[in-house]
Request: fold
Amino acid sequence: MSNPSILILPGDGIGPEVMSEVKKIITWFGDKRDLTFDVSEDLVGGAAHDAHGVPLHDDTMAKAQEVDAVLLGAVGGPAYDDLDFSVKPERGLLRLRKEMDLFSNLRPAQCFDALADFSSLKKDIVAGLDIMIVRELTSGVYFGEPRGISEQNGERVGINTQRYTESEIRRVAISAFELAKRRNNRVCSMEKANVMESGILWRDVVTEVHKDYPEVELSHMYADNGAMQLVRAPKQFDVILTDNLFGDILSDCAAMLTGSLGMLPSASLGAPMENGRPKAMYEPVHGSAPDITGQGKANPIACILSFAMALRYSFDQGVEADRLEAAVEKVLADGVRTGDLLAGEGVTPVSTTEMGAAIIAALDASV
Ligand code: IPM
Ligand code: MG
Reply:
């Protein structure tokens, strides 16, 4: 049997820096755990625009469709701010999500014990936090038609459309309930059914799907209240199910509960392929961080934990995913900190590569 395949798309800004630590970890699993991947690499975002004039080349799109998993770093940066909307770096990322049909975006927000002091919230509110946001990723206002800026009655009008079909809501709801079964059996669905018809349909369909999951407790919340509850008492949640735009906002909010955006991974999953693995892309929640690019300061943990999610969700290697997550936890418990994780004085931050090396040392110690 051939090795499982991974396409690496480091992208822009700190993307290549954090991804280079992930590559070392992939190599480690080949050397030490007999888990060898066929790794290829290509361009996305501004990097692809520099080379090809588009944020994602058709050949790269085709490769992404063929591999078992895509690992993406980050896209965007000030150099690309003035590009036409249609070729902005973000369009490359959105094309991958849409054409691979990665409808279920898993964004865990977990507070590591060693970092509980670092959250902007009080320690007892976030200590032990472990929630999962399931964000619909291929529809809603991000992709709905009509859209655009046009001229009407002598002034410009900007239009985007929030649109969801029943089947789009159903499939992402199923993925949230399935996930809840493997966690704490609770789903809170968030929309704005008080002002949006798409929210009414969302609530209806989620309630229908729930009939197949009697063991899971379902609640509904308006998304604005959800945002408030996330900062008031985040531990009330287990799985949060929500649409594309609310999920974008709520997941940034949940991410910050844990102390740093530099810690959070994500998985974007689609339908199963012929080999049974889901179509999948893994990426850190953080962006390209132009302010620290090229300085060796970036925290590679979110990207490394994204690879752990790949081990778990694409490659059925839960034990090895646990091993990698435990290595990260160990390094944090030992006080190793990149600059974004510095709460107090007297701690010298380590560089991106030093953090990567510390995690590999912890992996070495685990076998
Ligand atoms: C995210 C990002 C993207 C989004 C951007 C970069 C297009 O904010 O993944 O959360 O809005 O989905
Ligand atoms: Mg976002």
In short: The first strand starts at residue 5 and ends at 11. Residues 130-257 form a domain with the Isopropylmalate Dehydrogenase fold (CATH 3.40.718.10). Residues 189 and 220 are 5 Å apart (CA to CA).
